[in-house]
Amino acid sequence: MAETADITAMRRAVALAARGLGATSPNPVVGCVVLDAAGQLAGEGFHQRAGGPHAEIHALREAGDRARGGTAYVTLEPCNHTGRTGPCAQALIEAGVRRVVYAVADPDPRATGGAGTLRAAGTEVESGLLADEAEAGNTAWLTSVRLGRPHVTWKYAASLDGRVAAADGTSRWITSAEARADVHRLRAGADAVVVGSGTARADDPQLGVRGIDGAVQPLRVVVDTGARAVRPGARVLDGTAPTLIAVAQDADAAHLPAGAVLRLPRAATGPGLDVPALLDALHTRGVRSVLLEGGPVLAGSFVTAGTVDTVVGYLAPVLLGAGPAALAEAGIPTLSQALRLAVTETVRIGPDLRVTAVPVPARKGN
């Protein structure tokens, strides 16, 4: 049974790790707390940006000599390799830390093994404390390592009867200003924001993060198969953040900035581009988390491809009765094949309700 002090320290490390969301890719978010030999806080830190010091280094620098004989709490197994920074396992050993408690084992074969190195040096090592909380906070990076593609969160805003626009196409604004502000929090935590050609035509979105101090602007991606939706002067082509326009290999994209064009194969079945190829291209560019803000058709293509990891729906207390539904064709012909979700959170955002859910494995016989 974990001691209260251990739980408190690790929970603080999880909270610290969250400060790095949106700024560390392709690295994970990690938090670290160091208590001295008497169990008092000596230092803490988090991984702030790729290429910069890891969480353990920040915490050890703050702790100084007080780390000797103390305990380090880390949300991810200390790394065991030299990349742009040195191995954190060795730094903990050199600092004289007596005990290391980490939450989640590192699945990256290039960095794993830190626990073994620590034990070989005589350091007491424990794992698994608050693993679920630490994993939830680092889900994007863990998904990218385990599946070889970015973690995808599909966000949509709809009326209570599931419409994302009225029958005449008007959609501004179904949800409240509070809900729209909350979306910028999601953007700030993502490496890339993805929309489709329908959204680009209807809204001319800028897709930047607003109202969040210190936010790193995500990569803006428009899936514009025929290269007809994004025109010169579009807001998504401004200098706020880098932009990619994903087009078919045979599309005429001469009117677009050459450096912004990403050519991809068309989907084998149905309209649009090959979704796995898009995600692979983004992963190659260091993207570990995608916020999918596209309309019903693009969302349907991601669901069909089996690449939606989290769903965040903002539901407004509004009824429309007609208009497009939140999700278009998604390769689900019958109820028995429905994508079942487990609700992980429901929160009131102003007058609206934010529902977060994740897919659950299909049970045999369903």
From TrEMBL:
EC number: 3.5.4.26, 1.1.1.193
Name listed for the protein in its UniProt record: Riboflavin biosynthesis protein RibD
Residues involved in NADP(+) binding: A157, W173, T199, T225, G295, P296, V297, L298, A299, G300, S301
Function text: Converts 2,5-diamino-6-(ribosylamino)-4(3h)-pyrimidinone 5'-phosphate into 5-amino-6-(ribosylamino)-2,4(1h,3h)-pyrimidinedione 5'-phosphate.
Active site, per annotation: E56 (proton donor)
PROSITE patterns tied to this protein: CYT_DCMP_DEAMINASES_1, CYT_DCMP_DEAMINASES_2
Pathway(s) this gene product operates in, as recorded in its UniProt entry: Cofactor biosynthesis; riboflavin biosynthesis; 5-amino-6-(D-ribitylamino)uracil from GTP: step 2/4; Cofactor biosynthesis; riboflavin biosynthesis; 5-amino-6-(D-ribitylamino)uracil from GTP: step 3/4
Organism from which the protein derives: Streptomyces nitrosporeus
Database matches in InterPro entries: APOBEC/CMP_deaminase_Zn-bd, CMP_dCMP_dom, Cytidine_deaminase-like, DHFR-like_dom_sf, Eubact_RibD, RibD_C, RibDG_C, Riboflavin_Biosynth_HTPR
Cofactor needs: Zn(2+)
SUPFAM superfamilies from the UniProt entry: Cytidine deaminase-like, Dihydrofolate reductase-like
Family per similarity comment: In the C-terminal section; belongs to the HTP reductase family.
Keywords: Hydrolase, Metal-binding, Multifunctional enzyme, NADP, Oxidoreductase, Riboflavin biosynthesis, Zinc
Record-linked Gene3D superfamilies: Cytidine Deaminase, domain 2 (3.40.140.10), Dihydrofolate Reductase, subunit A (3.40.430.10)
UniProt catalytic activity: 5-amino-6-(5-phospho-D-ribitylamino)uracil + NADP(+) = 5-amino-6-(5-phospho-D-ribosylamino)uracil + NADPH + H(+); 2,5-diamino-6-hydroxy-4-(5-phosphoribosylamino)-pyrimidine + H2O + H(+) = 5-amino-6-(5-phospho-D-ribosylamino)uracil + NH4(+)
